[in-house]
# Entry
Amino acid sequence: MRPSPSPLAPLGLTCCLSFVALSPALAAADEEAQEDTSSVFVIRAAQVVVRPGEVLENTAILVRDGRIVRIAADLETPDGAVEVQGEVVCAGFIDPWSALGLDGSVLDDRSSDAATRTADGVDLFSNDHLRAEALRAGVTLARLQGGYRAAVGGLGAFVRLDPALDSASEAIVDDSAGLAMSLGLSLPGSMRFSRGSDGSLRMLSGDRAVDVFDRVEAVDRVAAAIETGRQYREREVEYRYELEEWQKAIDEKTLKLEKDFKKAKKSRKKDQDKAEDKGKEFKEKKYKEDKRPRAPKFNAERAELARVAAGETPLVVEVHRASEIRNLLEATKGFTRLRLVIAGASESLSVAAELAERSVPVIVWPSLSGTSRPDELSASDLSLAGNLAAEGVTVLLGSGGRDAAAARDLPLLAALAVGHGLDPELAFKALTSLSAETFDLADRLGSVEIGKDADLLVLDAMPFHPGASVRYVFSGGRLAITPEN
# Structure
């Protein structure tokens, strides 16, 4: 079937479940499909959104062993397969900035470093209702990040939100999903007193803004950490080169000795006899090639920073104030391989041109934070996503990485961004292919293509169409949400 463009209609994705009845085959196999992740499914839809702007009409998708194995208009249903029908099929939504699956101790850990793995702190046995609600909203995957207030939060993790997955091997898609740092985030507050101009005392509570000089120093620490990683990688490369040269010299020397074996044997016997005559211990002749190059001492933190400096994994920095964003961009300008991602970026519009020029993606949190928001979020604006996109910045949308319950609201947050100027097609792209590409998951997720994981949504209308609802959700090929659950 020939792809044809189909614009996404404006407004929000409604997550209410006005479901149609299951087909007879699906109703009979629903319970078995809940437990059998290798079940075979055929999903038929009037429209299959391969990716934003590419839509197939009247097409079927064959899912086997968790993956999409065929997409065709004339697809026949194999014996024993479960058939699902709907109006629209698209890739599941990805939340690149979430807290769903982390308890407070992991989320607020300020002792983390570059080698700390969020995956080790993922809790798969609580908040099942929140994961189920996120799935019903169409959010199938989330990037979790511990230690969000820490200067270095460690490595993030992409996790499937299907509550039926109770082992890390099933749920965790990527346990090294970018290294996180933060700049200028308010510190946890405590009760304190402030003296007014009339001499009266007033008790204050809430988060405490970081001192401006500390914020400037924090930018320098980020740059210094990346430089440490770059130097560590240089030493690794030098060692590999030295080892190759040493091995080459050893091979050449071995070949020469084998060629002159008789002569060398005779010379060795002569040296042995001479040592014996003098009553001395015979020592084998040493060659300069015998000294093997010494490998650099392994350091887990520097190894992760090296991956960042080499562009092998993204560096995700949560930063909001314009001055800090500007200083960060300046401080990292010399690291040409660095893949910088900025989270939050509340005041980033003034540097949008540089963000676009350097291809720095921004994860926007289009939240309604009210008057009690922390100091760094005081300029937060629902129009930020649309304004940045209009300037050519790559925009992702996330649920903020603070509240586990917020992941279920991601489509609503996207709708808020759309309502304040973000193009609906860009919003859909932000929730699917762009997140997958930014975090190196595009070979598995983010679009509907053969060979990719079957993280799929079946809707009754195009995403962001008024009144569109999620009917079925496939998570890694498992039918996780149906009209009956």
